[in-house]
């Protein structure tokens, strides 16, 4: 059968020989190529082996040449060594000969100098002796390595004997001369003898100066130590007068005897200080152990201490050119040398400075009652926004003077004790002066008074921190961590917070007519929602008028911001109180209240720019704060807007807006809507319980603190202590309630409650939870007036009840910590603070 390409099998078989021949030719060509390549590769390998063998032969020849060079070098070295050996021997001989000649020459000089020194010492020619002695000592140093030679050892012993004889001879000359009173006649000889002592070294100089100091102070030690009357603290002036005469005698008669580099007068002063210090220690110990039981005379102690400090200062001034050294009596002591004369004698008083600290305590105790009786502002002084109470600057000036005085006396435990005394009376000033002026009036202080107290508290807060740093810079390092005035600073910040609350209270009082008007509106019978209610305009106008006046007086932006924040919190909480007071509230009434709340929020946001230039945009951070604060009104009012029919709608609205599972809170919402009858409440409550048990609502909290804090029971003024007290207490303890009328008589009580419960009020932006939800105010049972200056540790309130001072102080400190944290986070607005008061400037 033909192939597809038209080729037959016969044709294919005919082509096989041709193909086979072609393949054979190709195979032959490949074989030839392979053979050619093999022959070429064989030739290349042979060339490589030959080249390697040639390289090895060349290397062997190179190594042979190197070895030959090395052998020739060694031969050359041996030849040179043989040539220079004789030269080296000659050099060594020359060196040894030179050393021998030098040693013999020095030995000759030493022997000659020694013989001359012996002769001069016997004739007391001390100037020449000094020069020869220095030469002998220097020459003898060269023979230390030859002391194994008997002759050198004997010569060394003779030289040491001469030195010892000279030392004894000079000391004897000084003793005899001073004993006979012949110093002026023999001053040249004694001055030259000091040159000999200088040459003998430090030990000889120390012995002579020690003898001189002891000789000069012998009379002082006998007179002032042996006689009790002469050695008492009453005669401290005589001690210093005696030594001043001694220094004059030294300058006139003895200064020329001793070289200036010896500083004998300074040594004498140190010896006097050590002796006097030891005397004072014994005297003070005996005075503390008096058998009659009378305490030491503080005035006498302070007088002696002041005279001692003046004397030490005079010594410091006289010897300021160099560093004071220890007395020669203790020159060999291992103790550290005293630097200067500071506390050289006054150190003895340090253990008894607690008496001085106690006297400062008593002095400061007398100032607090005096400060409390002074007016906040002197009658003849005009008010300004940076004015502080004068007594605060006077107190810190007293502290500065006392601190400087104590730092001179002691930088140890007594300074630490003084710092605690300072802290004690800073607490007293905060409680018994600043807080007293803030809470002693029935209606609170005036706006100017509250601002002055705020400025003073801020000044005291800043200056207390500076005082702490100044004390830490002066006290000993190991006591530095124990100096802590943070609690006092917190107490002043607590007073500042209370002053801000007092300013807020002024605005609250002005707003009371507007709140009365709000409570008078028949919210349950309202049919239509119109524009804002009339009370809103009145409220905003009164808030802005009073706030404009107050903000002008606040020169620090952070306090202006604190006032506005506190005011918005207070007004929002009071609005909630009045919502509860307006029950029953219809759906239309709730809608009108919600509209009014939006108007109020917009008005509150303008507080930050009341005194700013027209067109100034509102502070964004403050607007955000106002929005967050007033936002808690929306859930309550939006829930009240929902009708009770159908019941499903009200229950769902409660779960969406109020968002809790508390049946008690749900009953309060029904009560606010006027659904008070049990038949009406029962189906709603059952439906609520059914819905809250569903899986979708299991994650809701047990109780909403806003609703739990609502107090729906109307209380009388007698039981609550007035609206102002209730409002302050509501914010302070997060428990709103409704009074019948405002009674300003209990503002002090409310202010104290604000300080007492500051943690809840400041830390929580919402109304707190009171137990099961029933809220009560206990202003009638709390006392607030700050304590008197008495020492019983108790304050007295308006009813004569006693209040522990410690409790008040801790409340102020806690209040201050929270307030300082919040004030520190405020962005601030208003005037810039260009006046920074400091402890140093005051």
Automatic annotation (TrEMBL):
<dbReference type="GO" id="GO:0000938">
    <property type="term" value="C:GARP complex"/>
</dbReference>
<feature type="compositionally biased region" description="Polar residues">
    <location>
        <begin position="774"/>
        <end position="784"/>
    </location>
</feature>
<dbReference type="Pfam" id="PF16854">
    <property type="entry name" value="VPS53_C"/>
</dbReference>
<dbReference type="Pfam" id="PF04100">
    <property type="entry name" value="Vps53_N"/>
</dbReference>
<feature type="domain" description="Vps53 N-terminal">
    <location>
        <begin position="12"/>
        <end position="373"/>
    </location>
</feature>
<comment type="similarity">
    <text>Belongs to the VPS53 family.</text>
</comment>
<dbReference type="GO" id="GO:0042147">
    <property type="term" value="P:retrograde transport, endosome to Golgi"/>
</dbReference>
<feature type="domain" description="Vps53 C-terminal">
    <location>
        <begin position="591"/>
        <end position="675"/>
    </location>
</feature>
<protein>
    <submittedName>
        <fullName>Vacuolar protein sorting-associated protein 53</fullName>
    </submittedName>
</protein>
<keyword id="KW-0472">Membrane</keyword>
<dbReference type="InterPro" id="IPR031745">
    <property type="entry name" value="Vps53_C"/>
</dbReference>
<dbReference type="GO" id="GO:0005829">
    <property type="term" value="C:cytosol"/>
</dbReference>
<dbReference type="InterPro" id="IPR039766">
    <property type="entry name" value="Vps53"/>
</dbReference>
<dbReference type="InterPro" id="IPR007234">
    <property type="entry name" value="Vps53_N"/>
</dbReference>
<dbReference type="GO" id="GO:0010008">
    <property type="term" value="C:endosome membrane"/>
</dbReference>
<keyword id="KW-0333">Golgi apparatus</keyword>
<keyword id="KW-0967">Endosome</keyword>
<feature type="region of interest" description="Disordered">
    <location>
        <begin position="771"/>
        <end position="798"/>
    </location>
</feature>
<dbReference type="InterPro" id="IPR038260">
    <property type="entry name" value="Vps53_C_sf"/>
</dbReference>
């Amino acid at each position: 059968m033909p192939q597809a390409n038209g080729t037959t099998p016969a044709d294919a078989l005919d082509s096989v020989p041709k193909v086979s021949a072609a393949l054979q030719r190709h195979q032959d060509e490949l074989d030839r190529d392979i053979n050619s390549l093999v022959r070429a590769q064989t030739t290349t390998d042979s060339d490589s082996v030959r080249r390697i063998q040639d390289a090895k032969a060349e290397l062997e020849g190179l190594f042979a040449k190197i070895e030959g060079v090395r052998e020739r070098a060694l031969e050359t070295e041996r030849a040179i060594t043989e040539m220079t050996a004789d030269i080296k021997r000659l050099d060594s001989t020359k060196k040894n000969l030179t050393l021998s000649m030098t040693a013999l020459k020095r030995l000759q000089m030493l022997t000659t100098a020694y013989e001359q020194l012996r002769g001069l010492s016997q004739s007391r020619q001390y100037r020449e002796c000094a020069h020869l002695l220095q030469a002998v000592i220097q020459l003898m140093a060269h023979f230390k390595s030859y002391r194994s030679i008997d002759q050198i050892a004997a010569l060394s012993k003779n030289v040491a004997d001469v030195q010892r004889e000279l030392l004894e001879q000079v000391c004897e000359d000084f003793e005899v001369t001073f004993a006979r009173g012949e110093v002026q006649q023999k001053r040249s000889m004694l001055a030259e003898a000091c040159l000999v002592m200088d040459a003998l070294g430090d030990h000889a100089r120390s012995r002579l100066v020690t003898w001189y100091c002891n000789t000069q102070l012998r009379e002082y030690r006998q007179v002032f130590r042996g006689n009790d009357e002469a050695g008492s603290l009453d005669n401290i002036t005589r001690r210093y007068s005696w030594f001043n005469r001694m220094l004059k005698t030294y300058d006139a008669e003895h200064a020329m005897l001793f070289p200036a580099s010896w500083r004998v007068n300074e040594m004498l002063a140190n010896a006097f200080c050590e002796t006097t210090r030891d005397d004072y220690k014994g005297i003070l110990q005996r005075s503390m152990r008096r058998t009659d039981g009378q305490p030491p005379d503080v005035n006498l102690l302070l007088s002696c201490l002041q005279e001692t400090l003046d004397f030490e200062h005079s010594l410091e001034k006289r010897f300021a050119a160099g560093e004071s050294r220890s007395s020669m009596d203790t020159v060999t002591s291992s103790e550290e040398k005293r630097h200067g004369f500071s506390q050289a004698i006054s150190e003895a008083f340090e253990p008894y400075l607690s008496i001085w600290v106690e006297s400062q305590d008593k002095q400061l105790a007398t100032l607090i009652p005096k400060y409390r009786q002074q007016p906040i502002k002197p009658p003849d002084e005009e008010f300004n926004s940076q004015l502080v109470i004068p007594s605060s600057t006077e107190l810190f000036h007293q502290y500065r003077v006392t601190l400087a005085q104590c730092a001179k006396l002691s930088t140890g435990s007594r300074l630490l004790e003084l710092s605690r005394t300072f802290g004690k009376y800073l607490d007293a000033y905060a409680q018994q002066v600043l807080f007293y002026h803030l809470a002693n009036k029935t209606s609170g202080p005036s706006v100017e008074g509250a601002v002055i107290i705020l400025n003073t508290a801020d000044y005291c807060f800043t200056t207390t921190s500076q005082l702490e740093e100044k004390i830490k810079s002066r006290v000993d390092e190991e006591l530095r961590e124990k100096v802590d005035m943070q609690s006092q600073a917190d107490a002043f910040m607590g007073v500042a917070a209370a002053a801000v609350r007092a300013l807020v209270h002024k605005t609250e009082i002005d707003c009371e007519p507007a709140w009365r008007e709000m409570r008078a509106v028949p919210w349950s019978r309202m049919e239509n929602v119109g524009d804002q209610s009339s009370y809103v305009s009145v409220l905003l106008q009164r808030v802005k008028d009073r706030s404009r006046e107050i903000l002008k007086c606040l020169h620090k932006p952070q306090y202006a911001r604190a006032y506005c924040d506190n005011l918005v919190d207070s007004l929002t909480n009071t609005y909630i109180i009045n919502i509860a007071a307006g029950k029953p509230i219809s759906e239309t009434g709730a809608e009108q209240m919600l509209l009014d709340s939006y108007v109020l929020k917009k008005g509150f946001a303008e507080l930050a720019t009341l005194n700013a230039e027209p067109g100034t945009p509102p502070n964004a951070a403050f607007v955000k704060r106002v929005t967050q604060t007033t936002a808690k009104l929306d859930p309550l009012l939006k829930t009240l807007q929902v009708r009770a029919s159908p019941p499903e709608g009200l229950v769902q609205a409660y779960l969406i807006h109020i968002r809790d599972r508390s049946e008690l809170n749900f009953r309060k919402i029904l009560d606010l809507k006027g659904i008070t009858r049990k038949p009406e409440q029962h189906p709603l409550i059952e439906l609520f319980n059914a819905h809250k048990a569903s899986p979708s609502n299991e994650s809701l909290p047990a109780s909403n603190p806003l609703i739990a804090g609502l107090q729906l029971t109307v209380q009388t003024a007698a039981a609550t202590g007035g609206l102002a007290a209730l409002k302050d207490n509501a914010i302070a303890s997060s428990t709103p309630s409704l009074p019948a009328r405002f009674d300003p008589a209990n503002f002090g009580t409310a202010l104290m409650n604000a300080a007492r419960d500051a943690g809840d009020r400041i830390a929580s932006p919402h109304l707190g939870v009171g137990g099961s939800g029933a809220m009560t105010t206990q202003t009638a049972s709390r006392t607030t007036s700050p304590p008197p200056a008495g020492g019983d540790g108790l304050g007295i309130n308006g009813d004569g009840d006693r209040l522990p001072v410690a409790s008040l102080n801790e409340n102020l400190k806690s209040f201050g910590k929270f307030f300082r944290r919040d004030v520190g986070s405020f962005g601030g607005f208003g005037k810039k603070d260009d006046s920074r008061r400091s402890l140093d400037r005051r």
